[in-house]
Specification:
The protein is α+β, with helices and mostly antiparallel strands. It has eight helices and 14 strands. It has an eight-stranded mixed sheet. Strands 6-11-8-9 form a four-stranded antiparallel sheet, with no helix packed on it. A two-stranded antiparallel ribbon has the order 13-14. The protein binds N-oxalylglycine and nickel (II) ion (NI). InterPro entries: DIOX_N, IPNS-like_FE2OG_OXY, IPNS-like_sf, Oxoglu/Fe-dep_dioxygenase_dom, Plant_2OG-oxidoreductases.
């Protein structure tokens, strides 16, 4: 339990050595402004006759940034607020209350509180965070416990499918699992030396991210970091790596990271939506032909995560492994 940053972070004036990133990957003192450029999609417009325009905006954003934000997504504000407060209460509860869920190496626990990444023992530098993870799969099994219809992720996937020129339901088959990863980033005395989450691309199909109003998320675009504004009412969506494979590079996954700050703890919750482990991931047949041959080979979805961990931080190297 002493590995949980929140157990000791408020008692230290300096970051311990094994949390200090090397100069080339640490955030440093450079000020990264919040970019106004990450597109905002009004999901309600998709129902109001503006479907084509909404699809076009999503595809453009996915091609340019691999990221966009959705508003009017149908989840009531009080539900988002309530969810955040539950996570906050959990993360800020005494160590004693967390100990049954805690594990510092890979575990099959249904619900798991881990320090840093899932690989604490094997990482060179630890991340300034702790994470609560549990799967929400199969959806039917967990649905009834959810406060409202889950984030209209199926609608988002349908808009993406249509935008790719695929049947609207095409991606339904690849979105049968959902893993929740709630992140807690305690305030850090030297944020310039640490990372809450090091640079990475997400593994699955899409990720939906909720934030609590404290900034920290940054997206890499053309070798430049862009800050994402932490609007707690919007949902941040990002194109994950296996979707890049399915659409044969028509959309690109975006690398991102989370930085810490010295003033305030931050909470975010990522919902990773992806395929069942045994599902075959490959470029959609409808998107390949003689002129656009498949860039990737076929593989099982469950083969992806181990490769991502092998190449953590280098999403290109991970994708390279699955090239045809
Ligand atoms: C993640 C992630 C970013 C954040 O959990 O995969 O990228 O802002 N989180 O917490
Ligand atoms: Ni991520």
């Amino acid at each position: 339990m002493e590995k949980l940053v929140s157990n000791w972070s408020s008692n230290v004036g300096a970051v311990p050595e094994d949390y200090i990133y090397p100069p080339e990957t640490r955030p440093g003192n450079m000020h990264i402004p919040i970019g106004e450029s990450i597109p905002v999609i009004d999901l309600s417009q998709a129902d109001k006759g503006d479907r084509t325009l909404t699809i076009q905006k999503i595809i453009n954003a996915s091609q340019e940034f691999g990221f966009f934000k959705v508003i009017n997504h149908g989840i009531p504000e009080n539900v988002l607020k309530e969810a955040m407060s539950v996570w906050k209460e959990f993360f800020e509860s005494p160590a004693e209350a967390k100990k049954d869920l805690y594990a510092d190496s890979f575990t099959m626990k249904d619900c798991w509180l881990s320090p840093s990444s899932l690989n604490y023992g094997r990482e060179k530098v630890h991340m300034w965070r702790e994470g609560l993870r549990h799967s929400c799969h199969p959806l039917q099994k967990w649905h009834h416990m959810w406060p409202q219809t889950p984030p209209r992720y199926q609608e988002i996937l349908r808009l993406i499918s249509e935008g790719l020129g695929l049947n609207g339901e095409f991606l339904d088959e690849y979105s049968q699992t959902m893993v929740l990863s709630a992140n807690y980033y305690p305030a850090c005395p030297q944020p310039e030396l640490t990372l809450g989450v090091a640079k990475h691309a997400d593994p699955s199909i899409i990720t939906l991210l909720l934030q609590d109003g404290v900034s920290g998320l940054q997206v890499l675009k053309d070798d430049t970091w862009i800050g994402v504004d932490p609007n707690p009412h919007a949902i941040v969506v990002n194109i994950a790596s296996q979707l890049q494979v399915i659409c044969n590079d028509k959309l690109k996954t975006a690398e991102h990271r989370a930085v810490t700050n010295s003033r305030k703890a931050r909470i975010s919750a990522a919902f990773f939506i992806g395929a069942l482990g045994e599902s075959i991931i490959e470029p959609a047949k409808a998107l390949v032909d003689e002129l656009r041959p498949p860039i990737y080979k076929s593989f099982k979805s469950k083969e992806f995560l181990p490769k991502l961990y092998e190449n953590y931080g280098d999403s290109q190297a991970t994708l390279e492994f699955f090239k045809a």
